[in-house]
Amino acid sequence: MLSYPLKRPPVEGSDDGLRFSPTPGTYVAVRLNPVEMVQHLSKDIDALRAAESIYPKVYIVYLEQELDFPWPNKPWYRFNVSPIGPHPPPPDPVRGYTSDTCVPIFPNSSHPSGAEPINPERPFPYHSCYHWPDNEMHVRVRSRPRPEEFDENNAVALSVKSQLKRMRMMTTLVMCAIEGKQNAEKARKESAAPNFEGHIPSVPSPATAQPLDRIASSEEPMETPEHARLEKSPEFDRGSCSSRSSHYDSEYSVNSVEDNMAVDVLTGPGEDLEVCPLVDLWIDLAENLKERDIGSPPEFVRECEMAAE
User: Fold this and answer.
1) I need a labelling partner for 278 at 20 to 30 A (CA). Which of 60, 126, 194, 205 fits?
2) Taking the C-alpha atoms of 83, 89, 91 and 95 in order, what is their torsion angle to the nearest 10 degrees?
3) What is the pLDDT of residue 195?
4) Which range, 9-13, 47-51, 69-73, 243-247, has the best average confidence (pLDDT)?
């Protein structure tokens, strides 16, 4: 989801960097607040004890999109976020994803297949973080009382150009991973099926992984599709990742339009807000989280599931 990190009007009577709601397109630190989530169940002692038994970690998430109209003085603001991994993602055999299916965040330049990192507008204070695929989720961000608010003077954010680069890179990585899985499955089926002469045919080799050092350089023209550049490689199987990536892009666009049409402009998408994770949020990453303490996305998901039970 593309977000436009435009500066909201500052809080009246405050410094320029203060906002009543954080700005999409920003990397932030969050921590689940399970006790606050069940405060409305004051008579449910079991629910309160269960919430108190959760000891949440601090995580980095990327604010993809604000889901409700950001009125001032709300108790919380709802966002679509992507948890950031402090390491490459584990392989996902069901989807066909590998540890390559991720985008590094500069200054991290390490990638299993050499994909280039994306560059935030301000220095990112950690050296081993990645965007993972298909891990977006909804959270509610607790508002802060005045005069504190959310101080974005040191916010680490992506420009619109970098957001587009990240989206193109991830689309290419995901579709090539899916293509690799489909080729492998096809090879297994063909190897198990006897031919007309009654013997087992040789196993065709799956499509080789695409050289990711060809993926989106920030100096290359923004309008050039990733799969078009990959097609120039002699190792690229024309009509595979390329055509499927185009199908993915068109399908994503249709689904995004349908999803947006179903969202109320003022109140956002319909969901059970009582189980939507409620988090505390900090803009200044380095001030609030050391690299060795960054939680992993699956841990964050598990904490949220426990709080919702």
Assistant:
1) 126
2) 30
3) 61
4) 69-73
CA distances from 92 to 56, 133, 165 (A): 25, 10, 24
What is the pairing mode between strands 278-282 and 137-142? parallel
Instruction: In whole angstroms, give the CA distance from residue 68 to residue 263.
Output: 9
CA dist., res. 84 & res. 40, Å (int): 31
Give the residue among 90, 97, 89, 96 at the shortest CA–CA distance from 185.
Answer: 96
- Give tens-digit pLDDT for 225-236: 334 334 433 333
**Residues 261-265, mean pLDDT to the nearest whole number:** 45
Distance, in Å, from the CA atom of 29 to the CA atom of 288, rounded to the nearest integer, reads 7
User: In degrees rounded to 5, what are phi and psi of residue 278?
Assistant: -105, 125
**Residue 138 in 3-state DSSP?**
strand
3-state secondary structure (DSSP) of residue 154: coil
The residue written with tokens 């890179």 in the block is 169
Question: What would the two tokens of residue 134 be?
Answer: 């298909």
Q: How confident is the model at residue 241 (pLDDT cuts 50, 70, 90)?
A: low
**Where is pLDDT greater, at 2 or 79?**
79
Nearest Cα neighbor of 64 from 286, 305, 256, 212 is 256
Provide the 3-class DSSP secondary structure of residue 176: helix
Task: Give yes or no for residue 282 having a pLDDT over 50.
Answer: yes
Question: Scanning the structure block, which residue is given the tokens 């049409």?
Answer: 261
**Residue linked to tokens 């992984």:** 209
